[in-house]
Amino acid sequence: VSGRREVIVRLPGHPGRSYPVRVEPGVIAAGRAWEAALAGVSRGVVIADSNVDPLYGEQVERAVSAATDAPTLRLSFPAGEASKTRESWAMLTDRMLERGVGRDAAVIALGGGVTGDLAGFVAATYMRGIPLVQVPTSLLAMVDASVGGKAAVDVPAGKNLVGAFHQPAAVLADTDTLGTLPEGELRAGLAEAVKHGAIADAEHLAWIEEEAPALLASDGDRLGELVQRSVEIKRDVVIRDEREAGPRQLLNFGHTVAHALEAATGYRMLHGEAVAVGMVAEARIGEQLQVTGEGTADRLAEVLGGLGLPVALPPGMEPEALVSYARRDKKAREGAITCALVSRIGAPAEDWSTTVPEDAFLAALDRTRPGS
Ligand SMILES: NC(=O)c1ccc[n+]([C@@H]2O[C@H](COP(=O)([O-])OP(=O)(O)OC[C@H]3O[C@@H](n4cnc5c(N)ncnc54)[C@H](O)[C@@H]3O)[C@@H](O)[C@H]2O)c1
Ligand SMILES: [Zn+2]
């Protein structure tokens, strides 16, 4: 079969913790892939949101039941970030307990990053942890959320503040499922792929720019290639630093500003859109601090703009409005603003995390206003 791709994530420590990321059209219905992913598992619990369950739930249920030789429990929850809560976690785990799901079961997270994080947290905690198979169906989940083992729910104090590290047994990324993904969500996923290029691989970034028309037209083979390269980059960062003591912070490039923007707009911007603006702004911050080479921000704006992503603050948004949110960011230490910067396209800054003086932050954001 053409278009079959695989990335192996080899975590340091014991070899049983390595897992494959299979990137392949049709893989969600492929019996052999499921048999390998569910080896030793006697029952599957498929968790999907209300958009994805009607599209792909049945296919996956059938394949999982065949691989485990047992009926599969299928659970769903309302789509959207608002469902990534302790309440949803309680509802899902209660259903599993009612239905007698034991330690011999595995959770299958079928959907975007919300499902991956929520179902991942269910798998991490149910009976102190049961196996997890990630089946990402959004581009963002394929290139980012499904790999690396972070699982979490949002709480009133902030996003992702209660969670666990729980590595999947396998990731099955079926690029055919991207055919039903809304275009805005596809662009949002592309922003994270651009981030991978920006922090680690200038060629990946140039390739995305060149292939933008095919990628935006949902060309399955191009998307498969994109997912493979992005997963390789994320893997190479994650295996050096599973628990984000140092290098993994690189993946936060653009995210200090992005998180502030998301909070300041009441989460009306898609995460990937906020990351697009955030990368341009943080490249400007880096240029201001002479950590980042001149022209980096303009280059990022060119590539991201070409993908139809926003590269400036929303009209009317004042840089001052973002400062307090940036200080409250999970990564902020003692109220200082910190960013993970790049030195140029394809290379991180020397330090994983740079403290940004408020005046530099404001000046750079001022230059990221629309029309400036
Ligand atoms: N764990 C990590 O390392 C990590 C990394 C990045 C992001 N995240 C988390 O991921 C979440 C964002 O992920 P997301 O953007 O995938 O959001 P999402 O899961 O809400 O998916 C976006 C939308 O697309 C729909 N959808 C997904 N796949 C579809 C398909 N194939 N066809 C039609 N519709 C489809 C969903 O129902 C949803 O409405 C955030 O909660 C973020 O915190 C986690
Ligand atoms: Zn992100």
How many helical stretches? 14
- The neighbouring-strand order within the major sheet is 1-2-9-6-5-3-4
Radius of gyration: 20 Å
* Shape annotation: globular
Q: What are the defining features of this structure?
A:
single chain, about 375 residues, alpha/beta, 7-stranded mixed beta sheet, two-stranded antiparallel sheet, 14 helices, 13 strands, about 45% helix, about 15% strand, globular, binds nicotinamide-adenine-dinucleotide, binds zinc ion
In terms of topology, how is this protein built?
Elements: E1 5-9, E2 19-23, H1 31-37, E3 43-49, H2 52-68, E4 73-77, H3 86-98, E5 105-111, H4 113-125, E6 132-136, H5 139-145, E7 150-155, E8 158-165, E9 170-173, H6 183-200, H7 202-210, H8 212-216, H9 220-238, H10 255-264, H11 271-288, H12 296-306, H13 319-328, E10 337-339, E11 342-344, E12 347-348, E13 354-356, H14 358-366
Parallel strand pairs: 2-9, 3-4, 3-5, 5-6, 6-9
Antiparallel strand pairs: 1-2, 7-8, 10-13, 11-12
Helix pairs in contact: 1-2, 3-4, 5-6, 5-9, 6-7, 6-9, 6-11, 10-11, 10-13, 11-12, 11-14
The structure holds nicotinamide-adenine-dinucleotide and zinc ion.
